[in-house]
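Extended Data, panel c. Modelled sequence:
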Amino acid sequence: MDWLDSMQWLEPDLTALDAVLGVLPGDDYGPCGARCRDGHACKAHKVQGSKRCRMHGGLSTGPRTSEGIERIREANTRRWAEYRATKAIQRPELPG
């Protein structure tokens, strides 16, 4: 028995980690590969089922249906109205 064979218990069990992360066997979970602003390739991991990482378009692409677009429009209108109302309260009085 080689001493190297006896050290195999030191190797991490990545299958348990993959199960926690949701990586399926055979998934290409490598680097994103998109070009960053300074020109180098992105090294972040791809989002499962996508070709890119979360920072380069691997997550949601936004609403696709007219109902979804309308729902987002209403949410943004409500959000900005609340934001403007709180900012108006916190705005200090100008001298003069």
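The mean pLDDT is 76. This feature is highlighted in the accompanying rendering.
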